[in-house]
Amino acid sequence: MSLLPAAGAVCFLAALIEGWIMALIQYLKLEPVKKLFPGYKYLVRSHVDYVMMATLVFVIYLVLNSLELSLSKVAILALIAGALYNPFGFLLQAIKPEMAESDSILLKAGILLGFIPLTYGVGIACILIIRKAISL
Fold first, then answer.
1. CB atoms inside a 10 Å sphere around CB 18
2. For residue range 93-122, what is the model confidence (pLDDT) as tens digits?
3. What is the Cα–Cα distance from 75 to 81, expressed in whole angstroms?
4. Centroid of chain to Cα 3
């Protein structure tokens, strides 16, 4: 379970770094950085998504911990993988915006497959919380 706050911290660090990158692009108008991230709107989405994932992971950890519940290793790893993977897709689109317009089945499958571990990890956590609430 101690991996969950560490994963949340990694997500927040990614969001902080992206926030600084956005500041370099928007306010300092650094062209080399702007060229590296031509899909600015996807950078913003990745930034927001990392903040949301960090918050989600922290909240799940705190609620489970306060209810004296724990996730299986598989659910923990799935939750962490999903929380790190989902925003990363937006980061890739910030670097290569044409990915967002692609009709590639492989690309779309890769994005959709990324939802599975997060859904599993969050779903198991929610089921445990609901079961605990019902038994109180």
1. 24
2. 999 999 888 888 888 888 888 899 999 999
3. 10
4. 15
